[in-house]
Amino acid sequence: MKRLLLTAALALGSAALGMAQSLPRTAPTPKMQSAFEHYWVAVKNAKMDMHSVMVIKDGKVVAEQWQSEGKPEVPHILNSVSKTFTSAAVGIAIQEGKLKLTDKLVSFFPDMLPANPSENLKAVTVRDLLTMNCGQETEVPREVRSGNASWIKAFLAHPFPYKPNTHYTYNSMGTYMLSAIVTKVTGEKVVDYLYPRLFKPLGIDKPKWDESPEGINTGGWGLYLKTEDLAKMGQLLLNKGVWNNQQIIPSWYVEEATSYQVPSVPSGTKPGEEMQKGLTLESSDWVQGYGYQTWQCRHGGFRADGANGQYIIVLPEKNAVIATTANVGDMQAEINLIWLYLLPGL
Question: For the segment 28-78, what is each residue's pLDDT rounded down to a tens digit?
Fold first, then answer.
């Protein structure tokens, strides 16, 4: 009965998403079938509010399921998974000669700088923003986002106590600045810039992406996509930026973006605190290292992740992608179930 339900879900998902734009489907192996069923039992027992899970193996969807608030045809809030799409825009803009990793942040917004910019601020590069190493110890306060003041000015006025590329601080407003840079050099919002270059080639409808009062896509959050759209992005990254024999994102950029660039700690944790919090390489997927707006994972993988359980997990050694949406508080517990049940199924 469960096998029939899964097969029906595959057919329903394909129909709802439109076969012309869908990833190919294939029946799961008995091993994957069993792993997927046991995974959902574990999710239920853990009382996790998972909304969707899609597993891609060798370029084909082998298992998928939606529940709770998840629906195949309804875009889901991605939270910080949005960052990886902003990074893709940066990579494409670099390939088009519109900017460089070594470009200085201050060069894009000379009229928005504080009166006496610090040497650390003047040294921040595009790469430092991508790796969460811009030199800030804390993020710009969230209250700044509630008014109509310039987010760019607020970011540039916020303290930069560290020399860039020496201190990791998870920084969503840093990603907003990347979005602002792309908009500055292209004349387009990131969502508009990416549509003909990324979304349309992948068969993704032009998505909703929240904006700041300045009319700039929020970059670090605020993007809405379907589960299959996430799976497509994962497959694109797995393929080093190639889709249907077309180079969408430059391969060198994908290689750097999805590789270890700097040490990492979870949001809200300062470098050096990971051991006292019990975060080890064996137990935590947040201390494996960071790339360009992607995290390294255990088991040789990398991922985009967003608050409350949104994941694009890419496992090159398995030639596989796992995409999830959820409303889960303990994201380590969520990914632990993936390692415990779905990974062996691959």
Answer: 999 999 999 999 999 999 999 999 999 999 999 999 999 999 999 999 999
Return the DSSP state at 34: H
CA distance 257 to 253: 6
DSSP 232-290: HHHHHHHTTTEETTEESS-HHHHHHHTS--B----TT--TT-TTTTT--TTT-TTSS-B
What is the rounded CA–CA span in Å between residue 306 and residue 220? 10
Phi, psi of 259 (to 5 degrees): -105, 165
- The closest alpha carbon to 202, from 246, 238, 240, belongs to 246
Helix, strand, coil proportions of the chain in percent (round to 5)?
40, 15, 45
Question: What pLDDT is attached to residue 13?
Answer: 45
Q: How many CA atoms lie within 13 A of 261 on its CB side?
A: 25
Residue pointed to by tokens 């707006």? 293
The overall average pLDDT reported for the chain is 94
- In the chain, where does DSSP find H-type helix? 2-17, 30-45, 82-95, 119-123, 126-130, 151-157, 172-186, 190-194, 227-238, 251-257, 331-337, 343-345
- Inform me whether the pLDDT recorded for 14 exceeds 80: no
Alpha-carbon span 184 to 126, nearest angstrom = 13
